[in-house]
Amino acid sequence: MAQTKRKRRTKHRGTAAGTIQTRGRTGRPPTADERKKQTRMEARERRLNTPPSWKRSATMAAFASVALFLLFSVLGRGKQPLQSAAIFAVFAFLLYTPGGYYMELVMYRRRQKRKQQQQVPK
Hints:
The protein is mostly helical. The protein is built from three helices and two strands, in the order ββααα.
């Protein structure tokens, strides 16, 4: 006799309290590319959800200042290219640190606001 009911594809079991526990993923394991993509996305989410800090802004400003110092010392013309490049690098560091912090703060707040609006249905 033919079977009339369609069989369940995934197994689950009920508990005494009446809840149903389902098993986790039982299919094929993810490939290396899928795992890499997933960890990359998780790292991006973690990075975007961390609030800005002065230390990170100072580090980024320091890298930019060193790059500017190297650029101006190589391309500098005149009697004292290293001194002028150093002065410009210090000025850039003092300008980039708060500028970078406040820009990150604005972006962080905007992301958090958008995330909160997506969670609360209208």
